[in-house]
Amino acid sequence: GHRSHPGVMMISNAASAKEWLFGTAIPLWLDIGITADGLAVEELDFQARPRDVGYHRTMVQFRQAFCFAKAALAGGCDASVARELFLRASAAAKHPDGGWSHKLNGDGTLQDTTRDVCDQAFGLLAAAWTYKASGDAGILAAHQHALNFVDAQAGEGYAEAMPSRLPRRQNTHMHLLESFLALYEATGDDGYRTRAEAIITLLKTKFVNPDGFLFEYFDVRLSPLSGPDNWIEPGHHFEWVWLLQEYARLSGSTISPMADRLFAMAVRHGLDADGFAVAKISPDGRILDGRRMLWAQLEMLKAYLVRGEDARPILANIARFLPSSPAGIWYEKLDENGNPVRNRMPASTFYHVTGAFTELLNSTKATA
To answer: Which of 266, 172, 152 is closest to 218 using CA atoms?
Structure first.
């Protein structure tokens, strides 16, 4: 049996995860997570009250629309919530030259007009899922200007942003892959599969070194930066494992052997003695940052689920991040001793929570 930890939720199986997500977290975010202006709040305090931080990141709007859409498809809320949030954020953040701007003011006016390609990826992801949940074809029309902008940033891989900046990141490509796969599934349009395949080729040829480690940062030619400017995040290894499995599922192809390599390296070098994924390891497999990020445990859960591995110990670890009071919030990270780090609670992490818990519900349904 699992040891019980005072003050945290007991989440040990799909039923308890479902109860937490749809009985506690989604209702909380529906209640306090959207401002009077119809935008998603940026973060909460640890009494589960919205904190005004002076901006709204476009990425957070789109991630929350994704969460509400995924929840709606699983019967946890009405699809109109996702649809309205997506359309409002999409219109507010729309850049006159295509794509979405990076940040809004509290009232929804533009604050930072940088066009970050990672933000576009989350807008495209939200468009795919919101379309799936609502069936509103207007949502697909709303994403075309961003898709055109993203396509214009493509060469060998995608630029990071406009105005342009370095370093280049695997993370941007990983999230574009996720959105292209979601759009492919939602629309059946082969163009999305082609875009996805090009990113998987970059993973194999540029992002992973011969030892099987996935680097984070790259120069203009997509060569990995060297020295202390680069590291490996086990959570991203697990995220790619799930994405490679998704690609195989949607395209009817066999799973890339790269998924096995990434999984093996993350499990061998990226976990601490308690089985938590650590924040950062070095290219020679040493732990550089032993803190435990919630998002990394959630991506590890998804990887274990799609591979058919025993995910129960990971679920027990994830429960350590979920306080029983106030219910529906989470700790972003635990320190090396497993104590919650209570500095901020950004809404952005809900994307990882919802993605992992809905994956758990789907995988249990399939094996029930």
So the answer is: 172
Strands 280-281 and 217-218: unpaired
Q: Are 38 and 47 in contact (CB under 8 A)?
A: no
Res 366: pLDDT? 65
Cα distances from 269 to residues 51, 210, 311, in angstroms, run: 37, 15, 18
DSSP assignment of 327-346, as one string?
Answer: TT---SEE-TTS-EE-S-EE
Q: How many other C-beta atoms are found inside a 10 Å radius of the C-beta of residue 277?
A: 28
Give the contacts of 236 (CB within 8 A, at least 6 positions apart). 170, 171, 174, 214, 216, 299
- Asked if 44 and 347 touch (Cβ cutoff 8 Å), the reply is yes
Half-sphere CA count of 7, side-chain side, radius 13 A: 6
- pLDDT reported for residue 367: 55
Q: What is the pTM of this model?
A: 0.96
Cα(60)–Cα(80) distance, integer angstroms = 18
* Residue 284, C-beta contacts closer than 8 angstroms, at least 6 positions apart: none
Going by C-alpha positions, the residue among 11, 52, 67, 88 that lies closest to residue 315 is 11
H or E element, residue 140 = helix 137-152
Confidence of residue 61 (pLDDT cuts 50, 70, 90): very high
Look at residue 155 and give its three-state secondary structure.
strand
Map residue 247 onto helix, strand or coil.
helix
